[in-house]
Specification:
The structure is a single chain. The protein is an alpha+beta fold and 196 residues long. It contains seven helices and five strands, in the order E-E-H-E-H-H-H-H-H-H-E-E. Strands 1-2-3 form a three-stranded antiparallel sheet. It has a two-stranded antiparallel ribbon with strand order 4-5. Helix 4 runs antiparallel to helix 5 and helix 6 packs antiparallel against helix 7. It starts with a strand and ends in a 7-residue tail after the last strand.
Length: 196
């Protein structure tokens, strides 16, 4: 349903647990969303930390790739044409996603096939949305881009070095976190120009 997850805290006689569940399913009932995933908060934080450590471990490559992609998108003259092509590609990928859902609902493909194919489509859709976002924003200088990337890595280091990671800290860095019905977690970092 693409709704955000909600934090649920339960206290029992001898134990306490914190889980994250789909807010739509939790608030509107099981018919509102098919995603039954419940994620233990400690496990979610562990996944986020692993993801961020991967960024730090590959800092130079990540910085160069981010910079290269931005500079390619910033390149002259073809902006509107590129934007038009990206919007068309986005529309096609959304259509593919709808068809996958229909195939699953009609028992043409299994849940496993749906998960596998949906995962790559979601990544592609997010990538296209990011590209469209960059094209729609003002041009940044090389210096501004490099400063943004340096600041981003500084923020990642600060989070990884913190004794306790808070929701506020994560919101400054992370645009969103998606969890599919198999429990696969995807983290999306904020892009240049995104506010916290």
């Amino acid at each position: 349903c693409h709704r955000s997850f909600r934090r649920i805290e339960r206290q029992f006689k001898n134990s306490r647990y914190i889980r994250w569940v789909c807010s739509s399913r939790n608030g509107d009932g099981r018919n509102a969303c098919h995603n039954e995933t419940k994620i233990v908060e400690d496990e979610l934080l562990e996944e986020i930390i692993k993801y961020l450590e991967g960024w730090i471990d590959n800092k130079e490559a990540m910085m160069e790739e981010t910079f290269k992609q931005y500079m390619e998108k910033q390149g002259g003259g073809e902006g509107e044409m590129t934007s038009k092509k990206l919007r068309e590609e986005l529309r096609r990928n959304h259509k593919k996603q709808e068809k996958l859902q229909e195939k699953y609902m009609n028992d043409i493909i299994s849940m496993e096939e749906l998960k596998e194919k949906s995962h790559s489509l979601k990544k592609k859709i997010e990538e296209i949305k990011g590209q469209l976002s960059v094209l729609g924003k003002a041009n940044y200088s090389e210096e501004e881009i490099r400063k943004y990337i340096d600041d981003l890595f500084g923020d990642i280091r600060n989070i990884l070095n913190a004794e306790t990671i808070t929701n506020t800290m994560l919101k400054q860095l992370i645009q969103k976190i998606e969890v599919d019905s198999s429990g696969r977690v995807e983290v999306f970092i904020r892009k240049i120009g995104d506010g916290a």
